[in-house]
Amino acid sequence: MSQWMVLALMPIYLVTGCGDLEPEMQDTRTVILKMDFDQRSSSRTSSFSHVDLSNYKTHLIIALPSGKTLTNNYNDFYDDSSFAQGLMKADKTVRLEIPLNKLYTEMKIFAFLFQENYNSLPEFLSGTRTLGYYGESTGPNGESRSFYILDLQAPLDITLRQVSGTDPDGDTETGGGSTDTFTELEGTWKTACYTDSVNYSNYFTHKLAGNDLTITEEQHSDTSCATDYSLQEKSHTFSVGDDAGKILITLGSTIKRTPQSASAVSSYNSSSNCGYSDWELNTAKDCTNEDAGDPIYCFYQLNGNTLYVECNESSYPTTSDIDTSDTSSTFVKQ
Hints:
Elements: E1 6-15, E2 28-38, H1 50-53, E3 58-65, E4 84-87, E5 93-99, E6 106-114, H2 121-126, E7 131-138, E8 147-148, E9 156-162, E10 187-190, E11 194-195, E12 201-209, E13 212-220, E14 228-240, E15 246-250, E16 254-259, H3 262-270, E17 285-288, E18 295-303, E19 306-312, E20 330-333
Antiparallel strand pairs: 1-2, 1-9, 2-5, 3-4, 3-6, 6-7, 6-8, 7-9, 10-12, 10-20, 11-12, 12-13, 13-14, 14-15, 14-16, 15-18, 16-17, 18-19, 19-20
């Protein structure tokens, strides 16, 4: 089973004595990060043993602008625009050369763990790379955390996520992966209250467990989610897409509907909703989903405890399709 772990950064030591450096090197400052693998576990996850960690021999650490959003495609961040990057050494330290003008810029730390063993960045870049875990600096509640390098005194946590198609013993799985790959999405996610096009207000809740996805929609007859109107629950299955971030949902056969107001009961009965004309207040009925078995293609991004999702019926969306301002598709871990 996939597990999570916490990576703690010990206090940073800033080397300021740079008078003997060559002129072209005087625009940077050396920062040493002391990495300490903490085996504490949360209420949802197990501790991560040193046996498991030994299977990931190369740890790439990157300092980036705070506006960057984490994905498992480390090539998106390892480029000329990165603040700094380095490999963790045997003594669990990482040496980063931070541009002088970036020391006062808000940044985050990203970590990527690979199975292969490389001792230098050139060797790492020219060799085979099998990514197993990745993560970013997080706050006490798991939210994405940024900081100023000069202000960082206390330890900094990084929560690692498992890459689709790998398992904790370091072996790469085939055949499209397994249910383990969605440990990072396991649990309940909920939107904030939002208003739809007909001035009803709603909450969406997604619950993921194994390969089962349960979607609950709470509809309200006002604009602030204060007055219940109806409740709808759909049960689907999902699987991992070919690439990271992709989910293929297969629509389930039934929809459970519950009228939660007198007006909803009246509306359901007058329209013979789902073929029933005997709807009662707060009494659920199973309705047939005419689209059962149809595929829905989704792409997701995680930023700490916030999940962004975009879906359509014909093809997988991409990173550029994600709208982080859309409340109806932005979920927070519950």
